[in-house]
Amino acid sequence: MACSKTSDTDRANTQTAAATTSDGYTRVNEGDYPDAPVQIVKFSDYQCPACGYFVPIEKKLKEEYGDKINIVTKHFPLSMHPYAHVAARSVEAARKQGKYLEMHYKIFDGQETWSKGNAETIFIGYAQDIGLDVEQFKKDMNSAEMNKIVMEDRKEGVELGIRSTPTFFINGNLVEKNPSTVNGFKILIDQYLD
């Protein structure tokens, strides 16, 4: 289950991913554990239905494994999804106000609605719903800083040869075939905990 990119980028030889941007900034989702023995990096597109499918799995894994796993989401908006880029910028704008996960989940929960149009207006409503300073959110959402974060993630994904979303790396190793269940992910994660 994946959303595919429309270009023919070849898969790169590099099969690792890091949770750090080129300027040395490490993005860790609120509640995650940067020193966890299992590091999961997920390249995702907020408008991709397959990415939305994995959100309940992600929540369950966090609940079951606690501080044994750290999940870092990297942005990989696909050209076939016209609102994915603004969704990613919106999540990063919320992160600046300490509400990354709240916006992350809100955007995925409302994916079916905002994917039809008026995404930016809907995201502003979400910002209000989760208690953000809306004026600051609007400025940040359309700022060069948020765009740079999204584009750096996307560039890293292209360099890694990513062609579809979601794409997962566990402790730097590409997950060749995404499991479709919590138990499928647990099998992969448990290999790194033994």
Give a structural overview.
The protein is of the alpha+beta class and 194 residues long. It has one domain (17-193): Glutaredoxin (3-Layer(aba) Sandwich), CATH 3.40.30.10. The chain is 47% helix and 12% strand. The chain has helices at 49-65, 84-96, 100-109, 111-114, 119-129, 134-141, 144-159, 182-193; strands spanning 3-4, 38-44, 69-75, 164-165, 167-170, 173-174. A four-stranded mixed sheet has the order 3-2-5-6. It has a two-stranded antiparallel sheet with strand order 1-4. Helix 2 (84-96) packs parallel to helix 5 and helix 2 (84-96) crosses helix 7. It is globular, with a radius of gyration of 16 Å. Mean pLDDT is 87; it is low at 6-16 and 19-26.
Q: What general outline do the C-alpha atoms trace?
A: globular
- Terminal CA distance reads 28 Å
- The CATH superfamily turns out to be Glutaredoxin
Number of domains: 1
- Name the beta content range: 5-15%
**How many DSSP-defined strands?**
6
Mind telling me the CATH class? Alpha Beta
Largest sheet: 4 strands, mixed
Unreliable segments (pLDDT under 50, ≥5 consecutive)?
A: 6-16, 19-26
Helix share of residues? 40-55%
Order of helices and strands: EEHEHHHHHHEEEH
Structural class: alpha+beta
By DSSP (H or I, 4+ residues per run), the number of helices equals 8
Q: What is the CA-atom radius of gyration, in angstroms?
A: 16 Å
CATH architect. name: 3-Layer(aba) Sandwich
Mean pLDDT: 87
- Looking across the biggest beta sheet, what order are the strands in? 3-2-5-6
CATH topology label: Glutaredoxin
